[in-house]
Amino acid sequence: MDLGLAGKTALVTAASKGIGYAVAERFVAEGSRVAISSRPGPTLKAAAERLRAQAPDRVHELPADLTEDGAGTALVAEAIETLGSLDILVSNTPGPRISPVLDLSDEDWETGYRTLLRPAVQLSRAAARHMAERGDGSIVFLTSTWVRQPSAGGGLSAAFRSAISSLSKQCAVELAADGVRVNQVLPGATATDRMRDIATAKAARNGTTVEQEIAEVVSAIPIGRWAEPEEIADAVAFLASPRSAFTTGHALSLDGGAVRATL
């Protein structure tokens, strides 16, 4: 299926590896012009080089530390200047510390806010203003199935990603008249470094092995495996594309059937 993304401009954050990288790679394959961002460093440079090997003239790297106040707003402005416009924003933020709620300090909560929620607010606000002026655009937030079904140790992620989920729905309501669609993708267990980090933290807390923790997660997934980042990227690309022109305010879970709630 041609998603109609050729020539579109997209900004993808936390795109140096994992799901973010897979999303950027999918946009490149679809013919989009893409700006990728993450913290400055060799990982981002390497990601940009791999993507440029596929599309030398359509990939731009924009280093940014989104934990800094105002960085999200500045990044969107830089992306618009670099790309000439911005059709698509994929707001992706790294996961916070895994820990029981009672072991979290005030600083942990403040760090979670700076890492997850504030960047999502600043990125989406800046992008939406630009898109609304043009009368067209698409924003996709990457949240988590922990929004719907929390897991032990995931309090920071569940709390802040739930706030992002509500932000997504609110933006969808308020921006629809301006031609801006806003949706979210909720990945479940996905084969990324982040998921291995989660399994490692749980193993340390529970006195088990990483392999045992991974096996327990997989046992709860009816399909019987983790998702691949590319499978998440497929869904993001569809929701961002003109092929989903009548879809806004949607929350799409990709979890292999692990979350079986009806709402």
Characteristic terms for this protein:
47% helix; single chain; globular; alpha/beta; 263 residues; Rossmann fold; 7 strands; seven-stranded parallel β-sheet
Account of the protein in words:
The chain is of the alpha/beta class and 263 residues long. It has two domains: 9-188 and 228-253, NAD(P)-binding Rossmann-like Domain (Rossmann fold); 191-226, no CATH class. 47% of the residues lie in helices and 13% in strands. It has helices spanning 18-29, 42-54, 71-83, 106-134, 155-175, 193-206, 210-219, 229-240; strands at 9-12, 33-36, 59-61, 88-91, 137-142, 180-187, 251-254. A seven-stranded parallel beta sheet has the order 3-2-1-4-5-6-7, with helices on both faces. α1 (18-29) crosses α8 (229-240), α3 (71-83) runs parallel beside α4 and α6 packs across α7. The radius of gyration is 18 Å and the shape is globular.
User: Mean pLDDT, as a whole number?
Assistant: 94
Number of DSSP E strands: 7
Largest sheet, strands/sense/barrel: 7 strands, parallel
Strand content: 5-15%
Secondary structural class: alpha/beta
| Principal-axes shape call | globular
CATH topology of the largest domain: Rossmann fold
Count up the helices.
8
Please bin the fraction of helical residues.
Answer: 40-55%
Summarize the structure in short.
Helices cover 47% and strands 13% of the residues. With 263 residues, it is of the alpha/beta class. Helix 2 links the parallel strand 2 and strand 3.
Give the topology.
Layout: E1 9-12, H1 18-29, E2 33-36, H2 42-54, E3 59-61, H3 71-83, E4 88-91, H4 106-134, E5 137-142, H5 155-175, E6 180-187, H6 193-206, H7 210-219, H8 229-240, E7 251-254
